[in-house]
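User: Hi! I'm working on a homework problem where we have to compare a predicted structure to a textbook description. Could you give me the structure for the chain below?
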Amino acid sequence: MPVGVRQMPVRTSDAMARLAPIQTTSKSTFEVLLEMTVEEALEIVEKVLNYQRLNKVQQLVFRQSWEGHSYMEIAKNTGYELGYIKDTGSKLWQLLSLAFEEKVTKNNLSTILKRYSRQNQTVTAIPVTSHSPSDDEWNGKESLSYANLTQLNESQNISLTTEVNYPHQDWGEAIDISTFYGRTVELTELEHWIVTDRCRIVTILGMGGIGKTSLSVKLAEQIQPSFEYLIWRSLRNAPPVQELLADLIEFLSDGQETELQPTVEGRVSQLIEYLRKHRCLLLLDDVEIVLRSGGLAGQYREGYQGYGELIRRVGQERHQSCLVLTSREKPIEIASLAGATLPVRALRVKGLPKEDARKILEAKGFSTLKRGWEELIALYRGNPLALKIIATTIQEIFNGDISQFLDQSTLVLGDILPSLLYQQFERLSDLEKGIIYCVAIETEPISIPELKSDLRFSGASLSELLSALESLKRRSLLEEEPSTEGSTAFLTLQPVIRKYVTNQLIEQVCKDILTVAKNQSIDKLG
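Assistant: Happy to help. Predicted C-alpha cells:
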C-alpha cells in the first residue's frame, strides 16, 4: 500500500469470523503453548502485519525480549545504545498493540501471541502508524475503537502508513561505479569493521588515482541496508565545517532541526545526538583538501580546524553510527585514535591484484592473451587510474601493442598523473621534498641510517627526520621494504612516483644550467 494511504482496520472478532484458520499439528493446545518458538512467534507477527517483515533492530529486540532479556542485556548483546533499544522496543510494542487491538508490552508479549495461536485465527493487517498510543492514552483499555484511533492520529496530524523506518539516502556527488573492478578483500574487511565491529570512524587512505572514491561508493552500496540514514559528501570544494555540519544535521533531522548552534562545538554536539538516535552512515570524500600544505601531514588549513573537532569527537564519543573518510593523507586525529582493535580504524589501499587489473585492460580493448600485460600491470603497481591513462596512450601511439610500448624502456606518466602528483608533491615540507629526492635518485632502497648520513640532512635532527618520514608514509608517498638480513626497514618509492620526482629533478637541473649560462653571458657582456 502506498505511503500515506489509510486502510480501515478490522476488529479482531470480525476478522476471526471470516478468515481461514491457521493449519496446526495434532498437538494439544497446552503443548503448542509450551513449545512455541521465537520463529513461530515472528511468523504470527508478520502474518498480522500483512507479511511486512520487521527491520533488523526490531527483530533483535523481539527475539531477545521473547527470551526474557532486559533492555540493558539486549543493548549489551547487540552493541546498540540502550536508549535506541528502548525507543525501538517502545515503538514495536505500540505497533503490535495496533495490530492486535490490545495493549502489547514487553512483559505480556508471549502471553498475547500464545493466546492468538490457541485461537488458531488471524486478524486483518492494520497498517503501521508513525504514532501509537502512550500508556496514558490507552488509559487501561483492552482495545481502542477505530473512531478513537483515527481521532488520536488526526489530532497529531499523522497518517497511517505501510512504511517502517524506511532508509533515507542522499548520495550527493557520488560517482557512478557501474564498472567496478575487484577490491573483494578490502570490501570484506571494511564491511566487517563497520557492520560487525561497529567502528565509529573508518578511513580509506591511498595515493591519488588508486580508487579510494570508487571503493567508498561501492562500500556504501553494499552496506546500506544496515543503516537508517546514508549521506555521501565530497570536500573537493572545501566547504567550511559549519556549512557541512548544517547540511548533515538538516538531512538527519529530516529538515526538522531549525535552530542550529552558532559554534562548531555546538553543531558537532547536535550531530552526535542524531548519530546516537539513528544508525547513520556518513561518507566524506577528499578529506586532504581541508588539510594544510607545506607542513607535516595531517594538519588543517587555516579556518578548517573545526574538521579536527568533528573527527575527534565522532571517534571518541559513544554513538551507533559510522563516519567513513577517504584521503590521500591521514588526519592527525586518525593517527592518534586508530588501532587494529579500536573503534577508529584506517585501511591503506594499494594497487589492484593482477587478475583485477587485467579487467581494466580488457575493458580498454586489449587482449590479455598477448605478451606484456602482466609486466605493464607490475610497472604501474596496479594503479587503476595509471593503467587507464597508459592504456589510452598505448592504443593511440603504439596501435595497442603493449610489448612495443614496453620496449621503449621508459615509464610514461601521460598528462593526468603528473597533475595529480604535482598537487600532492606541493603539499610537502622542504624536508619531506629533500627525502623524496634522495630516495628517488637511489637505485636501491635506502635505510634510515643511510638517509641520515647523507650530507643533505646534516642540519636535520633525527627526531625531525623521523617525523618527516612518518608524515610521508601518512601521505601514501613513501613505502617500506623489510630487510632480509635483519629488522632494519628500507625506504623506496612506487615507480610512478619515482618517475615523476626524477622528471622534476631533471627539469630543475636544466633550469639551473640555463640560469647559470644566462648569468655568465651577462657577465661577459658587462
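For your comparison, note the following. Residues 168-348 form a domain with the Rossmann fold fold (CATH 3.40.50.300). Residues 1-34, 121-166 have pLDDT under 50 and may be disordered. Good luck with the assignment!
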